[in-house]
Specification:
Structural class: alpha/beta
Radius of gyration: 21 Å
Strand content: 5-15%
Family: Belongs to the amidase family. GatA subfamily.
Shape: globular
CATH topology: Amidase signature (AS) enzymes
CATH class: Alpha Beta
Number of helices: 16
InterPro entries: Amidase (IPR000120), Amidase_CS (IPR020556), Amidase_dom (IPR023631), AS_sf (IPR036928), GatA (IPR004412)
Catalytic activity: L-glutamyl-tRNA(Gln) + L-glutamine + ATP + H2O = L-glutaminyl-tRNA(Gln) + L-glutamate + ADP + phosphate + H(+)
EC number: 6.3.5.7
Number of strands: 11
Number of domains: 1
Organism: Isoptericola halotolerans
Distance between the termini: 19 Å
CATH architecture: Alpha-Beta Complex
Bound molecules: glutamine
Amino acid sequence: MTDLTRLSASAVAEKLRAGEVTSVEVTQAYLDRIAAVEPEIHAYLHVSADDALATARDVDARRAAGEELHPLAGVPIAVKDVVVTQGMPSTAGSKILEGWIPPYDATLVERIRAARMPILGKTNMDEFAMGSSTEHSAYGNTHNPWDLDRIPGGSGGGSAAAVAAFAAPLAIGTDTGGSIRQPGAVTGTVGVKPTYGSVSRYGLIALASSLDQAGPVTRTVLDSALLHELIGGHDPRDSTSIPEPLPDVVAAARQGALGDLSGVRVGIVEQLQGEGYQPGVQARFEESVELLKEAGAEVVQVSCPHFEYALAAYYLILPAEASSNLAKFDGMRFGLRVEPEEGPVTAERVMAATRGAGFGDEVKRRIILGTYALSAGYYDAYYGSAQKVRTLIQRDFEAAFEQADVLVSPTAPTTAFKLGEKLDDPLAMYLNDVATIPANLAGVPGISVPNGLSDDNLPVGFQVLAPAKADDRLYRVGAALEAALEARWGGPLLDRAPELG
Ligand code: GLN
């Protein structure tokens, strides 16, 4: 039998439907793969084998009884640890949530369970999703399957590494400034940040509420579309949830795979390429633009002059929102509680001791920055100015989308850097998100598609951005590019990754 873990999620779903395999067999194959590769990768913080197999047995029985099932029923999935899961640890990569077992499911987890997809476990991440390398996790590093000495991207490095190492067919990530797309780029996987408000945030442990968005992490564009369709759509429990239905992302992915992009206008963003981008990253980007042209797309240059200030604005808005969202971790309500070593045990002193011991350096840095940016006397100079820049970036997108249906750029300026390389230099770490952050500030959707290897033999990503609520365009263009590249390579990029386990 072919190795089930090498198949795409849609291929597994097909085999399950046809009765060629059972969900128990697929789930067990993944649990075996996890056991084999986790010592090298450490993508998971928690593996829920019993829970996953129970779901698999249940879905197999239902299928045998002829029950009508969701297309992804029986296909296993991994979930980033920032998403709350009832009865399963949810730490967001932080010591402060160690031991907390949520009493409820996030909306997207409810939908995954309703579709009867076995949940393999929770994936590693930078603490509270702050970072680009997963090195800020309180529970150790995740390693990039392409080179174990390198970072898997962040903050969702665990989800991306699990999918790239064939230790999950599908995963959930969250993207506040690039944490789905950048890990996708550096691990050779597909990552999608949906339109802000199109996937419920209910049950995500909030980082920056006006930027956060959950989305799919997969090996193929079609698999992302199938997962996006499941988790997306209106949720009355999220006040920013978009009431109208999602565009048909699955149909768009299938159409794109046919390879015809005639009538599609593709805009190259002048500010998101060139200087600062590794030569191999830039070269693969230009080659893929040629492939889009060969598929019939019309390519134009667009200018988004305020993107230059996106990173600076983001690193004021994000810490401001985070400092407020993280105030609830006070040693009383969730997880860790540390009492002061000496002196009276007052609420304030327990809170100080708990936060001092429970938060890591990057989280403390951002809470301090955010609190400062919001303080009286500084609010207008920092937070207020950043919000104005945000509006200018939104206008840049509006103008660009008058000239083009989608915008394209490299997903990240470099390939995966070495573990430890940027740990002592927060600004260098932040710079890895220059190309992904503008989409979060404007709420528009984006996809990263595997775009070959740079000169250092490490994966690079191709980013496609679309106007809000036009997520289908990502899938059409993404699937067309994927088809053209795989025809050129003679198979998926991940087939070239080194053997593990
Ligand atoms: N790397 C970015 C940051 O550190 C993005 C994080 C994210 O998308 N969660 O904030």
